[in-house]
Design brief:
Elements: E1 2-7, H1 11-22, E2 27-31, E3 43-46, E4 49-52, H2 63-73, E5 77-81, E6 84-88, E7 91-95, H3 99-123, H4 132-140, H5 142-157, H6 166-172, H7 178-189, E8 205-209, H8 214-226, E9 230-233, E10 235-243, E11 248-255, E12 261-271, H9 275-281, H10 287-295, E13 298-309, E14 318-321, E15 330-333, H11 334-337, E16 347-356, H12 361-364, H13 367-381, E17 389-402, H14 408-422, E18 426-428, H15 431-434, H16 440-456, E19 473-474, E20 477-478
Parallel strand pairs: 1-2, 1-12, 2-9, 6-14, 12-18
Antiparallel strand pairs: 3-4, 5-8, 6-7, 10-11, 11-12, 13-16, 13-17, 14-15, 15-16, 19-20
Helix pairs in contact: 1-8, 1-16, 3-4, 4-5, 4-6, 9-10, 10-14
Amino acid sequence: MTEVICIGGGPAGLTAAYELSKQGRDVLVMEADPDYVGGISRTIQVDGFCFDIGGHRFFSKSQEVVALWNEILGPQMITRPRKSRIFYGGKFYPYPLDLKQTLVNLGFVESALGGLSYVYAKCFPKRDPKTFEEWVTNQFGARLFNIFFKTYTEKVWGMSCKEISADWAAQRIKNLSLFSALKNAFMRMLGIKSKGNKIKTLIEEFLYPRKGPGMMWEAAAEQIRQRNGRVELGRAVTSLSYDKDAKLWEVQYRDIKNGSTAIVHATHVISTMPLRELVHAVKDAPEKVRAAANKLRYRDFLTVALAIVDRERFDDNWIYIHSPEVKVGRIQNFKSWSPEMVPDQSLTCYGLEYFCFEGDGLWNSSDSDLVKLATKELEQIGLGSASDVRKGYVVRQPKAYPVYDQEYQDYVDIIRDWLAAACPNLQIVGRNGMHKYNNQDHSMMTAMLAVKNIIAGETKYDVWCVNQDAEYHEAGSSGATGERLVPSQVK
C-alpha cells in the first residue's frame, strides 16, 4: 500500500512527487512512457542530438516555481535570449513586434488599413466575445487578426477560429493588445529591455536547462528516488476504483513492455492523465459523465527534426509559419535554445512542427515521407537546402493540446462536479489532467497546491483557482506574485 500515487511523470506529476518526497511521504509515480519522464516536457536524445517537444521556456511570475527549478537543477540552468519571428506572405516579422520592420513589410497602405481596422474595432467592439476570432478582433482589429492570428491558429487547431472558444485567446495572449505591443516595440527601439514585462509573450530572455527541459525532470525523478520515493516507467493506468470502507484507491496498471497487469493501493491519487481517459478509467462513472468525457477532444502534433549543416540561416529560437502554402506550423532551432543540444557545432538541428490529429494522413505518414516533406518545406520557406540535411528524425506526440471548442467548458464542469462529489482523495492537476492548455509553471503550481491539501489533511486549496500566470487567486482576489498562497473556502 502506498500513501500517494501520482499518475503521470510530467511536470505536474513529478512536482507533486518531489514535494511529497521532501516531506518524507510515501509516493509512487506511474508513467506510461517506458523510456522518458517529463511528458511533453521530455527531451528526446538521438545520435547526440537533443529534441525539445514543442519548445519550453522556463519563465514564471511565481517565485515559488522559479525557486523549485533552481533547487532541482541549479547551475545546470542557463539564461537564453528570446528571439522569434512570424513568416507570412514571404516575409519575416519580428515577434515581439519591431515597429519599423513591421511597417516596412506591410507597406503604407496595409499599415494604414490595419490602423483603421483597429480603430473601428475599438469603436464598435463585439460585446461578450465567445470565439477566438471575436476576442482577437476586439484587441487588434479584423485586418491584423487575418494577418497575424488566423492562419497559424487554424493550423494549430485544425478548425475555424469561429469554432474556437474565446477562452483560448484570453488564456494564451492575456493582456496583449495592439497598444501593449506598440509600447513594447517603442521600448525596443530605444534599447530599453523589458525585464519587468508582465506579458509572458513579450519577454526577452528566459531560463533553460543546458540540454533541454527533460534534464529538469530527469533530475527531479532521481532526487525523488534518493528520498525513497518511486518513479516507475512503462506503467499505464487502466482502471481506478474507490473502496469506501477501507478508504483506499485501487489502481490497476498495465506494464507497457510485457503486457502484464497488476494492482496497487493508495490513500491519495494525484492524476495528470488526460481527463477523458481518467473518467473512463474510474469504475462506475455515470453515463452522463462518460458522455461529457467523450466530447473532450485533443490536438496532436509531430516534430520532424533535421540535422543540417549550420549556414546560420536564422538564429531564432522558433519561427511561427503563418503562410498557408506549407503545412508546417512552427520551426524550432534547437541550437538557439542551447548550443549543447547539438553534438557538433558545425551542424544545427531544426524541429519542424506539424499539427494534426492522431490517425490522420500526416500522423500516419512514414517517417521517411515526413522527413522529405519537412526538407521540401524548409527549402520552400528559404531556411535551408536539401543538400545540407544530414539526418532526419520524427517524434509523434499524442494529446499535445486539449481542444478549446465552444462547448468544452460545459463538459469539464460536469466532470469536475462529479469528481468533487464521488471521488474522495483524488485530485486532478496539469495540462491534460485539467483539460487546460497551460504552461508548465501553471501545471507545477496546481501540483504544489494538491500536495498542500494532502499534507493539511483537507482541501484547503482549489487548484482551479490558479491563473495562467501560476498565481493562486482566492475567490477572485489576487496573490500578486504567487509567493503567498491564500487558502480558499472550497471543501
